[in-house]
Specification:
Pfam families: Aminotran_4. It comes from Chelatococcus asaccharovorans. Belongs to the class-IV pyridoxal-phosphate-dependent aminotransferase family. With about 290 residues, the chain is an alpha+beta fold. The protein folds into 2 domains: about 120 residues, D-amino Acid Aminotransferase, Chain A, domain 1; about 160 residues, Alpha-Beta Barrel (D-amino Acid Aminotransferase, Chain A, domain 2), CATH 3.20.10.10. About 30% of the residues lie in helices and about 30% in strands. It is built from 8 helices and 15 strands. Strands 7, 8, 9, 10, 11, 12, 13, 14 and 15 form a 9-stranded mixed sheet that branches. A 6-stranded antiparallel sheet has the order 2-1-6-5-3-4. A hairpin with a 4-residue loop joins strand 8 and strand 9. The protein starts with a strand and ends with a helix. The mean pLDDT is about 95.
Amino acid sequence: MLWHDGALHESGMLTLAAGDRGLLLADGLFETVLVVAGRPWRLADHLARLKRSAAAIGMPIDARPEEAILALSAYAAASRELTGLAAIRVTVTRGAGPRGLKLPPHPSPSVFATLAPWQPAMAFQPVRLHLTAIRRNEFSPLSRIKSLSYLDNVLALEDAVRHGCDDALLMNTSGAVAATSAGNVFALFGEALVTPPIEDGVLPGITRQVVLAAATEAGLAVREQSLTVAALETADAAFATNSLRLLCPITALDGGDIRRDARTIALMEALRADIQADCGIDPFAEPAKASQFL
């Protein structure tokens, strides 16, 4: 299902101007939003990040992303097949412009959004990581926004798959851990939960934000500090987070096992509680859905 120009389109086909800068130059942004019970989880946070990201690249933003997310969420709520569960991606490009790199003086952004099925079994799954040679540039503003320029992440994931792993671990240009191909990284050391700081080339993830708050409430000492690969390998536990997979235990790095710690389950439970508080139900409430991590 596609939202464009204020309406839903079942065909999923979209017409863009041949000069659209999102198509030609990856000049644009996106957000991915989890929908539960027909309600977008942490919508205000996603919209706020999108607004900050647009400001960072000098692109105007209007109310259409919110309109698109709400329209697709309502569709998911009414759909017998989706039963209120879905993943929405909203994309904003700078729109069409003259040939060349120079920013158009009066951009007219294009906005569209797509909806895909989401199931609870997609979340909380363990992952095996491969340390890719592809680096994340912590000096680039794109490292801190959800830019359409995502090919590094695509190639990193492909590299991991070729090595028999589920996802890639990316370092930044200084050799510090930055992220997976699509998520933030955390490591547990004793009573401290460590995650790389934003300045290390890290996206300020929405789920990252929820986990940091939950960890503090659980009595863990939360530290945003640079993390080495060697430290990650010796952690009491490690995991990755994003808005659809939520919290995924990292069980191995290039074949070397990483320990697991029952305290990560408390953070998973906190995510469940946060989704229930925001969306009205816990999609993992049925035993068959919760057994994957309990």
